[in-house]
Design goal:
This protein is of the alpha/beta class. It is built from eight helices and 14 strands. The protein is globular. The chain starts with 14 loop residues before the first strand and ends in a 5-residue tail after the last helix. It comes from Brevibacterium metallidurans. Keywords: Hydrolase. This is Cof-type HAD-IIB family hydrolase.
Length: 277
């Protein structure tokens, strides 16, 4: 970590990648006009602005309303690339039904109190004891065979506690060979499981390849552990002022908090430093 609010003067910015929650907005509030203006300025200078989020597709509608001219979005922690402008899935990494069953069996054997949710390309499915913020969006299932023909892109696991980091440390070793475990909120008590090898960084790399932008020209913003791989991979990783310490340690710099429009301030400074385009 090199400092606070100081973009490198010689950085050849070619693409900006940003997390959403805790980075562009706070507590499900709209993105500030200051931040939207910075995003539009970035785009007007010919620099792609790519959202990279743990959100499922159905939670992108509010973002599309505010910034309808966005293109490809990396969502579900890298499992899906979604074109927000056309409303189409560009690419998806899924878990096989056998793989889903293996994961659930391994966790349940060690922790019978575990409850699960399954994000698929066609909706959210949960077991009867899983608490979700959007129960109206979920379908309750009694058996895994009910989703045998669904394309699962993320599994969420709860043990009924609040400490996501402790839960990640507890469950991670059980599934490390079959999937990638992370978390995006330190106090919601959820661990998020993606297909093995899939992270925000891995899928962002494929988007950058599609756009012809090398990693050395990527500036990335994030605040939570599911952003660490992306911040480390990018040519210049920027942690939010409100980020967890472990995230700040993985970044090249730290900007202001999301409440203080940290992305806008840092991005505008970076754009100011670029030669006229």
């Amino acid at each position: 970590m090199t400092g606070t609010g100081t973009p490198p003067a010689d950085f050849d910015l070619g693409l900006v990648a940003s997390d959403i929650d805790g980075t562009l907005l706070l507590d499900w509030q709209p993105i500030s006009e200051t931040t939207i203006d910075a995003i539009h300025r970035c785009q007007q200078m010919g620099i792609p602005f790519v959202l990279v989020t743990g959100r499922p597709i159905r939670w992108l509608a509010a973002i599309a309303e505010q910034i309808p001219d966005l293109g490809r979005v990396v969502c579900l922690n890298g499992a899906v690339v979604y074109d927000i402008a056309t409303g189409t899935i560009v690419d998806a990494h899924t878990l096989s039904h056998a793989g889903v069953r293996e994961i659930v069996t391994a966790i349940s054997a060690a922790h019978p109190e575990a409850h699960f949710a399954f994000e698929t390309l066609t909706g959210l499915f949960i077991d009867d004891g899983f608490a979700t913020r959007s129960p109206q969006d979920a379908t309750v299932i009694a058996d895994l065979d009910e989703i045998a023909d669904r394309e699962v892109v993320k599994i969420l696991v709860s043990l009924g506690t609040d400490d996501s980091a402790a839960l990640h440390d507890l469950l991670g070793p059980l599934v490390t060979r079959s999937c990638h475990a992370t978390f995006s909120d330190p106090v919601n008590g959820l661990v998020e499981l993606a297909p093995r090898g899939i992270t925000k960084a891995k899928t962002l790399e494929s988007v950058c390849d599609h756009l012809g932008v090398g990693r050395e020209r990527v500036m990335a913003f994030g605040d939570m552990p599911n952003d660490i791989e992306m911040l480390s991979w990018a040519g210049h990783g920027v942690a939010m002022g409100n980020a967890l310490d472990i995230v700040k340690e993985s970044a090249d710099a730290v900007t202001d908090s999301v409440a203080d429009d940290g992305v806008a301030h840092y991005l505008n400074a970076a754009l100011d430093a670029l030669p006229a385009r």
